[in-house]
């Protein structure tokens, strides 16, 4: 197997490679750090902490709590997102939480773009950020966001639950009454909404389905890690 001669590149290019690797794979970054002293020194620079996706770090690595704080100090988008979700959905600090999510979204952090878009739609009826997604991308990112189970038994706020109940009673019926494609299965409480229509449903029904999945599966962030301390 041929190996890429990274050490033959200019140092500033080596640094960029390390930064991009930090954003793509925490495990691969640690492998690179172990490869030689030069790579370890580049990976130790504080700026690299900006690029970690801390939510993609394998749990077995047991990321130290101080590293979360260090990443937040470097305005790391994934930690901005964590803080935003916790502030908005747990501490009921909606203005601050939404601002943190938007900061992460404006950095291009996919989880934040998705969650910010869904939050704006659910609480204020704003669909502006929906235009940033293709159907394929929102399905992929939505599964990624909703797969993160960090609630530890916490439930959503009364306001969120009221929005969910309103959505089920007033919006979901229009999903089934729309004749864009045949209905394969009816489900009034979101249990099987993703199986109710084929992929060629209209755009409105597609977003109703995605909102239904968000209401059904998205979990608030546990207070075991209190981001107010960052």
Automatic annotation (TrEMBL):
Signal sequence: where? none
Record domain At2g35280-like TPR: where: 65-120
Protein's name in the database: At2g35280-like TPR domain-containing protein
């Amino acid at each position: 197997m041929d190996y890429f001669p990274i050490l033959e590149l200019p140092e500033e290019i080596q640094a960029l490679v390390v930064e991009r690797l930090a954003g793509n794979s925490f495990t691969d970054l640690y492998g690179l750090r172990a490869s030689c002293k030069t790579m370890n020194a580049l990976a130790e620079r504080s700026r690299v902490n900006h690029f970690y996706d801390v939510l993609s770090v394998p749990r077995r690595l047991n990321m130290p709590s101080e590293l979360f704080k260090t990443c937040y100090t470097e305005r790391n988008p994934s930690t901005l997102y964590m803080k935003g979700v916790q502030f908005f959905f747990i501490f009921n600090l909606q203005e601050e939480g939404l601002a943190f999510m938007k900061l992460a979204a404006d950095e291009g952090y996919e989880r934040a773009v998705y969650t910010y878009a869904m939050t704006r739609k659910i609480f204020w009826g704003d669909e502006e950020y929906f235009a940033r997604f293709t159907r394929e991308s929102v399905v992929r990112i939505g599964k990624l966001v909703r797969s993160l189970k960090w609630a530890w038994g916490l439930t959503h706020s009364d306001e969120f639950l009221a929005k969910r109940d309103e959505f089920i009673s007033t919006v979901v019926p229009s999903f089934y009454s729309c004749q864009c494609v045949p209905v394969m299965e009816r489900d009034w409480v979101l249990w099987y909404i993703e199986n109710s229509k084929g992929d060629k449903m209209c755009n409105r029904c597609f977003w109703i389905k995605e909102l239904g999945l968000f209401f059904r599966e998205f979990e608030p962030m546990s207070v075991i890690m209190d981001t107010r301390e960052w």
